[in-house]
Design brief:
Helix content is 78%, strand content 0%. By secondary structure, the chain is mainly α. It has two domains: 6-104; 111-279.
């Protein structure tokens, strides 16, 4: 919302405030990713073979440690930073100041017209990002489309009680956001497992050097024979299966009809808001 109404809120929200909020958002990112990954791993454990468990347990332990470290950092630093920033913004945003040139030939821009322009712009961006997508599996472009759809939804949620047409857009964009969010989670988990292969190799090499240095050859042999990679490969295979299913859903449902309906509904809302502005 601060991004959408930047020009209207420039006297209440400084660049320093925006930088602080972005820093808070980045600080919570890795903890959220670890939480999502752990939830997905928990769902997989029921039907995994015994040979897969070392890899799953190793990855779970790594993610649990990251979540713990992120939670500690949040409690110690980020929470206090957020409380201070939110308190300042609440105080400033409680009062709006504006100036009008009474001699100007142009009337002041209303909230309805501003929101209409923003709604139409976001809907057009979403159509361009998804409707003209070069590759259906382009993770970065899909991620950007998810953000645009989310921003469109957040713009219109506050006016659902005043413009019934907005409710349809909110519902449709929420469904698209959920689908693209699931796809984003899959892509993040795949990258996580890719990095886990390298981390596992480094960690195993360190353990073997330590055991060999102590002359514990029996444990070194057992350690060398155990591989986390079998489980990591199985997890990657499952993620690829999930990814393909989500891509099919995106292509068959959204790119063949629902996206056009969502954009049309958003443009109807923009038209309705302009009618209200002129009445």
């Amino acid at each position: 919302m601060l991004r959408a109404y930047r020009s209207q809120l420039e006297t209440a929200v400084s660049n320093k405030d925006r930088k602080r909020l972005r820093a808070i958002q980045r600080a919570t990112g890795r903890g959220r990713e670890a939480e999502v990954a752990l939830e997905w791993l928990t769902k997989q454990q029921g039907d995994l073979a015994a040979e897969h468990l070392p890899g799953v347990n190793w990855l779970s332990a790594m993610l649990l440690e990251r979540r713990r470290a992120c939670a500690k950092a949040l409690h110690a630093e980020v929470r206090e930073e957020f409380r201070a920033t939110a308190s300042k913004l609440e105080e400033r945003l409680a009062i709006m100041r504006s100036e009008r040139n009474l001699l100007s030939e142009h009337p002041p821009v209303s909230f309805a017209r501003t929101l209409a322009n923003l709604t139409e712009a976001h809907a057009t961006d979403l159509l361009v990002q998804l409707g003209h997508i070069a590759r259906i599996d382009d993770a970065e472009q899909l991620h950007q489309a998810r953000i645009t759809g989310k921003r469109l939804r957040y713009l219109l949620e506050p006016i659902r009680a005043y413009a019934k047409e907005a409710q349809d857009v909110v519902k449709r964009s929420k469904r698209l956001q959920d689908l693209l969010g699931d796809l984003n989670d899959v892509h993040v988990l795949m990258r996580e497992i890719d990095h886990a292969f390298e981390a596992s190799m480094t960690q195993k090499a360190g353990r073997l050097r330590e055991l060999l240095g102590r002359g514990d050859f029996e444990r070194a042999r057992r350690e060398a024979s155990m591989s986390e990679w079998i489980g990591l490969v199985e997890l990657h295979r499952r993620l690829e299966s999930d990814r393909r299913a989500l891509i099919v859903q995106l292509r068959d449902r959204w790119l063949d009809g629902d996206l056009d309906a969502l954009v049309a509904s958003a443009r109807d809302v923009a038209y309705r808001l302009r009618v209200i502005d002129h009445s």
